[in-house]
Amino acid sequence: MTEYDAVVFDNDGVIVEPSDSDVLLDAVVDAFAAFGVKVDPNEVEASIGDDPVPRELLQKHDLDPEAFWHQRELTASLFQQAHTRDGGKAVYEDVVALAALDVPLGLVSNNQHATVEFLLAHHGLDYFETVYGRQPTLAGAARRKPEAHYLKNALADLGAATALYVGDSETDVIAAHRAGLDSAFLRREHVRDAALDVEPTYEFSDLRELVETVTNSQ
Fold first, then answer.
1. Which of 65, 92, 151, 160 is 20 to 30 Å from the Cα of 10, by its Cα?
2. Model pTM?
3. Dist. CA 184–CA 204, nearest whole Å
4. What are the pLDDT tens digits along the chain (218 aa)?
5. Element (H or E) spanning 37, and its range?
């Protein structure tokens, strides 16, 4: 195994549990309500998929995409924070294994930066020297993984030349490769049987296995 000078992690599905789709859907509905628009949740369900900007609905209701998106990001963050306080988005029990890594650690998430910062503070997670989530703008949304923008920023912060990126999705693997990094696909329960169209450098069943492998390569 390559000797890495940093390890960078995805957040949702790797460090904390994935976001509840119903919470995100309610946030989008509430964002429309902030503009005086009542929408059927079924109409906006697709807006939390690969392209979270509900462009057809925005055009239908003559809403400014940038203004709506900023409201949507704020609402989604607040809803996730409330959900976390109610017991959602728990930390995976194997995250404690990260303390054994003796290289700098970073975190790059497709979730809102405000949400990521809240989650780390709420759960008392202080493993990471640099943290990036998406900015609450359309430009920020366009820079989400599989784009490597935020990942490259994290690498620059860490001064890393041979980092490993750890995620739980094909998007994470693609982003790692676009940034010139090795990738580790973490087969948590929610992706235990997921088929990938791209090949990660490694696959691990949990973070303890990953940490043991990385530390043995140092």
1. 65
2. 0.94
3. 7
4. 789 999 999 999 999 999 898 999 999 999 999 999 999 888 787 666 667 788 888 888 999 999 999 999 999 999 999 999 999 999 999 999 999 999 999 999 999 999 999 999 999 999 999 999 999 999 999 999 999 999 999 999 999 999 999 999 999 999 999 999 999 999 999 999 999 999 999 999 999 999 999 988 76
5. none
Give the Cα separation of 162 and 99 in Å (integer): 20
What amino acid is encoded at 217 in this protein? S
Sign of CA dihedral 13, 181, 198, 206: negative
Report how far residue 14's alpha carbon sits from residue 17's, in angstroms, rounded to the nearest whole number: 7
Task: Classify each residue of 165-198 as buried b or exposed e, where b means 16 or more C-beta atoms within 10 Å of its C-beta.
Answer: bbbbbbbbbbbbbebebbbbbbebeebeeeeeee
User: What is the number of other CB atoms lying within 10 angstroms of the CB of residue 50?
Assistant: 7
CA 22 to mean position of chain CA atoms: 17
CA dist 102 and 105 (Å) reads 9
The pLDDT value recorded for residue 46 is: 66
Backbone angles phi, psi at 108, to 5 degrees: -135, 120
Residue type at 156 in one-letter notation: A
Alpha carbon distance, N-terminus to C-terminus of the chain: 9
Measured CA to CA in angstroms, residue 9 lies from 73, 90, 129, 130, 193 at distances of: 22, 16, 12, 11, 21
